[in-house]
Specification:
heterodimer, A: Rossmann fold, 3 domains, six-stranded mixed beta sheet, 18 helices, 26% strand, B: mainly alpha, two-stranded antiparallel sheet
Chain lengths: 507, 367
């Protein structure tokens, strides 16, 4: 059978990095083909080559048996290849129908709203992509916006669809709907390339899997003949254990390093987001905060890190009350913070690795005596940290936005841990990272706790909290609704309280 | 229809582009200008020769160029300093006026003091007035998150009205009581006029020397100090700045004050170096504040390049005046100047993008 897509010996070099180093990919028509790999394994580069965004330095791309040489995404589209990006390319104030025809080559000057709407409706009915053609994008949920992106590529006649980590933004239910859509598309003879680093969903939705590691193809396997465990070891190059982490020193709860008493704080729109929260974190203790996203986790983290003032209540670090809403005070009193939004909050992304390593201690006497920067000291600090935390970067003056996701997080971790904090607030520290990087981050957290840091781990990933935390708090609508020990914690109970079912009813 | 070439974003910007692109831009402008001149029946080489001669070659042309360049240098630095933090200060114009008001006050009021004291007084007052005026924009932005482009632009008009009021519509301290028919400013005390410094036979206005010192100070401030680091982080991501414990609000106010102070210095130099009065009409005709934005943009907000661009633009302006005549309309001068600015801005694109030939996509259409 002729391949839908065949890429052989693809090499793509970027300054300082070889993103693809002889990648082979062979996709059969009418299958869901998963492209699995860690962040930085070369998945995105490969798909950007296939969609004409980049040109390969070496190698051959064939579509339906013909050698192609795309100069732009338009060329790729003409050959029937469409891509659904992780970050949507939609105009918020336009309607669904308008977005679908936007950028079409031979679009007439005046748009035939009716005809477009009918076609959109037709496509959405056929593949179960429920969306109202006349709705404006900003009115839609993230899941619906993704459907618009898919409709857009189908409308333009794509026979081969590439989806870049499509489930990253979806709820589990939405993901299931998406999988059904993908199946419907392949049933019709279309081909789907599904990029992911989540093993479970790859197992669930794909027919075959190609695993990339370090810019090379490790292998292609039939999903039916493999297991999560095998894929994981192919992906990281060794077998990975997912289990509860055991720590050398158990928490020493006698000394409290972080204490919140009746803290109430507003969100950016001035509504109460954190409601009389009281909690304590002991020395060397990891306290997990579980909850569905948007229940005040971000605001809670920001209040502790001093980025947000509280309207009432007190925060004390190592027994001393700290003024709220002053990040500098929080930093100086020993609070480290790994924010959810790494690239724009935790790091100044256009700045170099070395500047980012010094982002919090540039004020110190070592880095800037008499308020004058010592570039040499800043560089030396960065060189040391890059080494110690194994950050993969061409050099210390590379802007962090050019690093891969895992290395970005390593820069952040290196800076925050090297400041010798008493308290660490970590918000979704492993989100979006690949298995290898997740392991590193978790190891570092455990290591820090063993060294006596009190950690507040805020995460939506219940597995992560269960495997790391000593104690679990459940947050719902800005309140702490449950507080239980992690050992032997009842998942069902946590799940229910996260969903707002009162604790009393659960018991 | 497809265009035969297309622009492709550069993944990195090689260093050699930083000097080669401006050179190529200039050459392109000269070639285009030559075509225009040739069409209108002039000898391009002759015209270029005259531009060089009038603007840049010899002591007298250079002296003239320095005089024209001085206000451009200050307003250019004013725009550059703010833009380095991502703040677009259109208000150099108004801050320039207000600085001139402050300096003129000192220049008129101080009599009998040693010369140096009065000059320092004018410099300081010009900076303080400009800084105060600039920080209005900063405070509004820091406290209420107002758009600095709009507030600073509106403050320009207010400063213009203030100038008119002081000279034309009131019997203010700045107005010369002896000027009856057409009101004008009161001259500053003669011994308070700034002196030129002669270097290699070329008279350099004190103001230009101050601009050179200011550019050096700005470079050090932004490259080598904590404050400069903080400004850079705010420009990159205000959220990251807040996260790192940087006091973003006070930094915004300080940078706007600094920006205003530089424009105010320009105003002080206008009074002390050149006009020796508060010239309400002349200041507003100059449009120095707006030219400064162009200067800073062409210099890519680097303080030293700002001085260089100000000098080049000063020379072009002067040569333009010299060229104008019955057989050489001012529109043609404007065209030549415009071509140079146009290619310089166009060249900017080439720093960030590269041109690729569009191959036909025969192979691509395979189905």
């Amino acid at each position: 059978m002729q391949s839908a897509v065949r890429m052989t010996g693809i090499v793509k070099r970027f300054p300082g990095v070889v993103a693809n180093d002889g990648v082979d990919l062979d996709v059969r028509p009418g299958e869901v083909h998963a492209l699995l790999g860690e962040n930085g394994a070369g998945k995105s580069t490969l798909s950007n080559i296939l969609t004409g965004l980049y040109r390969p330095d070496e190698g051959k791309v064939e579509v339906n048996g013909q050698v192609v040489n795309f100069a732009s995404p338009k060329d790729a589209l003409h050959a029937g290849i469409g891509m659904v990006h992780q970050h949507f390319r939609l105009v918020e104030t336009f309607t669904v129908a308008e977005n679908v025809v936007l950028g079409e080559d031979d679009a007439p000057f005046l748009m035939n709203q009716q005809a477009v709407a009918t076609r959109v409706k037709e496509i959405s009915d056929r593949y179960g992509l429920a969306v109202d053609p006349s709705a404006r994008i900003w009115q839609l949920s993230v899941g619906e916006q993704q459907r618009v992106e898919i409709i857009k590529t189908l409308y333009r006649g794509a026979r081969i669809l590439i989806l870049d980590e499509p489930t990253a933004v979806l709820t589990p239910n939405e993901a299931d709907v998406l999988f059904a859509t993908l199946r419907a598309m392949v049933a019709e003879g279309r081909t789907v390339i599904f990029i992911s680093h989540k093993l479970d969903e790859v197992m669930k939705v794909s027919d075959r899997v190609t695993v990339l590691r370090g810019g090379r193809t490790v292998g292609t396997v039939d999903t039916a003949n493999t297991s999560t465990r095998e894929l994981a070891s192919l992906m990281v190059g060794r077998s990975v254990e997912f289990s509860r982490v055991t720590r050398v020193n158990r928490a020493d709860n006698s000394t409290t390093v972080l204490e919140l008493t009746d803290v109430t704080a507003n969100d950016d729109r001035g509504r109460v987001a954190v409601q009389s929260v009281s909690l304590t974190v002991g020395r060397g203790e990891i306290v997990g905060v579980a909850g569905v996203a948007g229940n005040g986790q971000r605001e809670l983290a920001e209040v502790i890190a001093g980025m947000r003032g509280c309207s009432s209540g007190t925060i004390s670090v190592a027994g001393r009350t700290v003024q709220s809403g002053r990040a500098r005070v929080a930093i100086d009193s020993g609070v480290a913070h790994i924010p959810e939004d790494r690239l724009h909050t935790g790091l100044a992304s256009s700045h170099s690795v070395e500047d980012n390593m010094a982002l919090k201690n540039y004020r110190s006497r070592e880095m800037s005596p008499f308020r004058m920067l010592r570039r040499k000291a800043i560089r030396e600090q960065a060189t040391g940290l890059v080494d110690r935390y194994d950050v993969k970067t061409p050099n210390t003056s590379t802007p962090v936005r050019l690093l891969s996701g895992g290395n970005v997080q390593k820069v952040l971790l290196a800076r925050e841990f090297s400041a010798m904090p008493k308290v660490l607030v970590a918000a979704s520290p492993t989100r979006g990272l690949d298995v290898g990087a997740i392991e590193t981050v978790r190891d570092r957290l455990v290591e820090a706790a063993e060294g006596g840091v009190g950690i507040l781990l805020i995460s939506e990933d219940l597995d992560e909290i269960m495997s790391l935390a000593d104690r679990i708090l459940v947050i719902y609508e800005g309140r702490i609704v449950d507080d239980l020990s992690a050992v032997g914690a009842d998942r069902q109970r946590i799940g229910l309280t996260m969903g707002g079912v009162a604790q009393e009813t659960v018991r | 229809m497809r265009s035969p070439v297309r622009l492709e974003r550069r993944l990195e910007q090689p260093r050699w582009l930083n000097w080669s692109i401006p050179v190529i831009s200039l050459v392109t402008a000269l070639v285009l200008g030559a075509i225009v001149l040739w069409i209108t029946g002039k000898n391009p080489l002759e015209v270029y020769d005259r531009i060089l001669e009038r603007g840049f070659l010899g002591k007298r042309p250079i002296q003239g160029t320095l005089i024209t360049a001085t206000p451009f240098a200050f307003t250019g630095l004013c725009a550059a300093v703010a833009f380095r933090m991502g703040v677009i200060n259109i208000g150099g114009e108004g801050q320039f006026y207000v600085g001139a008001i402050g300096a003129a006050w000192v220049g008129i009021a101080m009599t009998g003091q040693p010369v140096g004291v009065a000059v320092v007084g004018m410099v300081v007052m010009g900076m303080l007035f400009g800084a105060a005026y600039g920080s209005i924009v900063g405070v509004l932005k820091a406290r209420f998150n107002t758009n600095e482009i709009i507030t600073s632009l509106m403050l320009n008009y207010i400063a213009g009205i203030l100038l008119n009021y002081l000279i034309f519509n009131s019997r203010s301290y700045w107005r010369d009581p002896r000027s009856m028919g057409f009101p004008s400013g009161k001259p500053i005390t003669e011994r308070n006029e700034w002196t030129d410094y002669v270097v290699g036979g070329v008279k350099i206005p004190l103001g230009f020397l101050i601009a050179v010192i200011a550019a050096g100070a700005i470079w050090v401030l932004y490259k080598r100090t904590r404050f400069g680091f903080e400004v850079g982080v705010i420009a990159d991501s205000p959220r990251a700045a807040r996260y790192a414990g940087i006091r973003t609000r006070s930094t915004i106010v300080l940078v706007m004050a600094l920006s205003g102070a530089l424009a105010g210095l320009g105003g002080a130099s206008d009074v002390g170096d050149f006009r020796h009065i508060l010239d309400a009409k002349g200041l507003q005709l100059g449009g120095f504040g707006y030219t400064g934005i162009v200067v800073a943009a062409l210099a890519r907000f680097n303080p030293f390049s700002t001085l260089l661009v100000a000098f080049l633009l000063g020379g072009l302006t002067n040569a333009g005046y010299a060229l104008q005549g019955p057989d050489f309309p001012s529109g043609l001068v404007g065209t030549l100047q415009g071509l140079i600015l146009f290619t310089a801005v166009a060249g900017e694109i080439l720093v960030r993008y590269r041109i690729r030939a569009n191959r036909r996509r025969t192979q691509a259409v395979a189905s």
